[in-house]
Design brief:
heterodimer, A: alpha/beta, Rossmann fold, 6 strands, globular, B: Rossmann fold, six-stranded parallel β-sheet, two-stranded antiparallel ribbon, 8 strands
Chain lengths: 172, 190
């Protein structure tokens, strides 16, 4: 169950444009249903190379490797996978102070119609706070491009991770 | 047949092209040796983050296709993140060679044995579309194997059977993470 497929993908297209304008070259991703909708748009980009990975920790490490050689990357994962990634965030991102941009599908918040995501929705933001990860909820199609731009500026100024949490309605 | 780790490392360092190669060492003995080997190429050592060496190297390889990336990983560390070989096989970077030091031990944590099953990393790499996947026997075989890897047009995996010596005097970590990152950035240049 994933809720209704957004008919409009304007929000997703604005995310793609914002990533391109931010100079992102690589997008490392593990799918979920919402990410699948977003990735359909990202894969249309000629400037973003998608790296399909098999675990979220791997996606974060790939983005860190890219950052260490001066290439901007984005990690696109579900919050379940983010919750799996505490070790790599602590022992790679934080330990070496590597900028890392996380675009996270926020399953289980009050906008999510699927009941079984609710427990991880409840723990996502408290966990991010405990892990020292600055984060924000996406502000819909009108606000998300600016949040992506500001997020990349922020991670590079502070050499820290940032997580932008999005819902299906932010893609519409 | 196994070879001492130091012999593998010296052969690898001797084969590096300082103008093109980047080195990533997963946590443990390789990372601890790295600052003491006179490595002429930019190198990045993990103090922690077990299992992250190969994806970190993949990110570097994809981010800088003009450079060649060599990852030094242990067998225990690779087992922790075995799926990463599938990711590398799918991404098909032609500038990434993964070396796997096989001693069937968690050396950093006291030499505990790995689970008692032989994971054939060469067979796994071949199964996930690495064009070169070989198990070497002696340090002298490493430079030509690296050359085969670079010429293959895709990722390569070289398994290095490594002697486990519980009395080996492995140097401690001698650089802090911030130093490692800054030294890597300086050596890499703009």
């Amino acid at each position: 169950m994933a809720g209704p497929t957004p008919i409009e993908r304007e929000g997703a297209r604005r995310i793609v444009a914002a990533l391109e304008q931010a100079g992102v070259m690589l997008v490392a991703t593990v799918p979920d249903t919402w990410i699948g909708w977003l990735m359909e748009e990202i894969r249309k980009s000629r400037r973003l190379r998608v790296i399909d990975v098999v675990s979220e920790e791997e996606a974060i490490a790939i983005a860190c490797g890219a950052a260490l050689v001066g290439t901007r990357a984005a990690v696109v994962i579900q919050n379940a996978g983010l919750l799996n990634s505490g070790a790599v965030i602590a022992s790679l991102v934080h330990l070496y102070t590597i900028p890392c941009f996380l675009l996270v599908s926020y399953r289980g918040d009050e906008r999510d119609p699927v009941y079984y995501h609710a427990p991880k929705g409840r723990v996502t933001e408290p966990t991010l706070t405990a892990w020292g990860i600055r984060h924000a909820r996406a502000r819909g199609r009108e606000g998300i491009a600016a949040q992506i731009r500001q997020g990349f500026d922020w991670i590079e100024e502070t050499r820290a991770p940032f997580a932008l949490l999005f819902s299906a309605e932010d893609l519409a | 047949m196994t070879t001492p780790r130091r012999a593998w490392l010296e052969a690898l360092v001797g084969a590096l092209d300082g103008g093109h190669d980047l080195v990533v060492a997963g946590l443990g003995a390789n990372a601890r040796y790295l600052p003491h080997l006179g490595v002429r190429a930019p190198h990045f050592a993990l103090c922690d983050s077990m299992g992250a060496g190969i994806p970190l190297g993949l990110g570097m390889a994809l981010g800088r296709p003009d450079r060649r990336v060599i990852v030094l990983e242990g067998d225990g560390s690779l087992l922790m993140n075995l799926g990463t070989l599938a990711t590398v096989g799918a991404a098909r970077p032609d500038n990434l060679v993964v070396t796997v030091f096989e001693n069937a031990r968690y050396e950093s944590s006291g030499g505990q044995a790995l689970p008692e099953v032989r994971a054939d990393f060469v067979a796994i790499a071949r199964a996930v579309a690495f064009p070169v996947a070989e198990r070497l026997a002696q340090a002298g075989e490493l430079p030509p194997a690296l050359a085969r890897g670079w010429a293959s047009g895709g990722p390569a995996l070289l398994a290095l059977p490594t002697a486990f010596d519980p009395g080996e005097s492995i140097p401690p970590y001698s650089e802090r993470p911030a130093e490692i990152r800054l030294n890597f950035a300086r050596a890499l240049g703009p």
